[in-house]
Amino acid sequence: MIVKLLLDRKREGKELAPEEVRELVAAYTRGDVPDYQMAAFAMAVCCRGMTDAETLALTESMRDSGTCLDWAGFPPSADKHSTGGVGDKLSLIIQPLAAACGLAVPSLTGRGLGLTGGTADKMESIPGYVAGLSLADYQKVVADCGCSLTVQTGEIAPADKKLYALRDVTGTVPSIPLIVASILSKKLAEGAESLVFDVKCGAGAFMKTREEAVALAHALVTNAKGAGRKACALVTAMDEPLGFAVGNANEVREAIDVLQGRCAARDVIDLSVELAAWMVSLAKGIPLDDAVAWCWENLENGEAYRRFARMVALHGGDLEAFQKTLETSVSSLEVVAADAGYVQSIDANGIAQAAFELGAGRGKSSDAIDNLAGVDLCVKRGDRVETGAVLARVSTTTRPEQLEPAAARVRAAVVIGAAQPSPRELILEEIA
Ligand code: URA
């Protein structure tokens, strides 16, 4: 393989053979292709795109760059992947819910770099919870309770880790084939037979427009099926935060409230049930309506919560200590409505910025997260509020000087107007 000639052809928009893509990725992973050539390749893909065959070859070769887990002997396996959004604590509900319906849910997850924490950060706000298990221990937890929220190890798709770091600094993140290969290589290596993608769309999402989100959803499903998995994608709204809580510990508390039937966040509950039901339907080969009914049953009878509590215990977490943590004194401020009217919209990005400034996210990977920092909304779109009503509470333990600016951001993010807005459409498309 002469890399320069591959680059010439890709730059001219010609299709590379699958073996050429595979050879390139294998050589890059070994260190035989330098970063500058791989960066040129990524830029050529950004500008010229990739055919389905090229995208699949890239995905599979990145999958094969590391360990691929095997779930033989386990119940039917499924996982859900979200492209990430504000207040997205759905994995904490969906994984134990799908496990309660008899699935093995191998879910390797991430730490957040950005405005709010990732799923692993949220789970680590539970005292004692160890998200960084070895792959062998992770499989033991799944064998015991059906699910495990474990942070992805370096053994999974190392080519993606290397390439993503390069894309991040060379302006080559926004390319559908590269995003598909990045997301899917990790999910394929993780080994679930069925994959459900929650592709978020809107101000608080990676994909800002519906068109981009739908294109990504189609590409994920096509390539997952091309790699022999059952797959579907939902394109869902991320213009407003999911639920009321945005942060880390407060999101875990909200997820537990859903699992214990105490939560009023309809968007979180409905989307969790829908996504879990798709996992069950694909993995068990049963009609979606039956899977929805089964998920409701396991949410309402407490089995999903029991799975969650067991998973936390197996990871060393202490839910009683977590409840006490929530009572720790924090610095907080209420955000009140300047006018009466209906909540027209709640800008997800503004809320995420406020949470970040309060200490809920990381600017760089070495930054520590303030588990108790965040925003607790008291209203949702469509609610009627009177002047002086509490719209939200902002909290921090480490950055009290940020309370006022964060409160101002939240006030600006919650738009109040005279007319009652139409109900929000949560699931925009289903691609199966
Ligand atoms: N998330 C990923 O894992 N990879 C991308 O390329 C983009 C989002």
Describe this entry's structure for a reader.
- The chain is an alpha/beta fold.
- Helix content is 47%, strand content 16%.
- It contains 17 helices and 13 strands.
- It has helices spanning 3-11, 18-30, 35-48, 52-63, 90-100, 119-123, 135-145, 158-169, 176-190, 210-226, 249-259, 266-284, 288-300, 303-314, 319-326, 348-358, 403-413, and strands at residues 78-82, 105-109, 147-151, 194-201, 230-237, 245-247, 331-336, 341-346, 374-377, 384-385, 390-396, 414-417, 427-431.
- The strands form 4 sheets. Strands 1-4-5-13 form a 4-stranded mixed β-sheet, with helices on both faces. A 4-stranded antiparallel β-sheet has the order 6-9-11-7, with helices on both faces.
- Helix 4 (52-63) crosses helix 9 (176-190).
- The longest helix is centred in the middle third of the chain and has 19 residues, at 266-284.
- The model has no long low-confidence stretch (mean pLDDT 96).
- Bound molecules: uracil (URA).
- The site of uracil has 7 residues, from helix 9.
